[in-house]
Amino acid sequence: MTDNGVHVVAICGSLRDGSHTRTALERALSAAKQAGGSTDLLDLRKYELPTFDPDRGRENAGDAELVATHVRDADTILLGSPMYHGSYASPMKTALDYCGFDEFEDKTVGLLAVAGGSFPVTALEHMRSVARALNAWVIPHEAAIPNASAAFDDGEFVDPKLEMRVTTLGRRAVQYAAIEPDPDSFESDQNVGAQGK
């Protein structure tokens, strides 16, 4: 399919070399590309992102400005993270902390979470809360991958229904890129730290 001008950026919150999160995001981005979008995977292993310090500007924080620029240039942002201690991983938190309204407001966001055990519902909920606090519109369809070590075989999905959930997320990332956003959330009204990052 031809490029329709929609640019989808996925942020991978896993630093593991054999990351199931990265594998799933790559599959979602492949589906987005088949739907006519252009894609970019932000593999956080490749960026220097120190722990967020509000007293240090983004320009003095390693690759933070570069990461923010990639996110800002997206029409749709896919957030993908393993679930750690009932929430999403700290590399994702650090990347999000360096972003604000300039990167997320009125953008479409898709969510994907991976767990070694049962469904990573709370990780999805926490990422959704962050996206809404930044006035992003979150795609209702989300991809949850439980029991990740059994979900893949040599980098391929074992369960076609699970793969369909992930590919649907990629297609929705393109389909809903230009949706009219919701009204501002009540969380965003109090999110003073997200102004002018």
UniProtKB/TrEMBL annotation:
A Pfam entry, by short name: FMN_red
GO CC field: cytosol
Domain NADPH-dependent FMN reductase-like as annotated: residue spans: 7-148
GO molecular function: FMN binding; oxidoreductase activity
Cofactor(s) needed by this chain: [4Fe-4S] cluster
Entry's family note: Belongs to the SsuE family. Isf subfamily.
Protein name: NAD(P)H-dependent oxidoreductase
UniProt organism field: Natrinema halophilum
Phylogenetic classification of the source organism: Archaea, Methanobacteriati, Methanobacteriota, Stenosarchaea group, Halobacteria
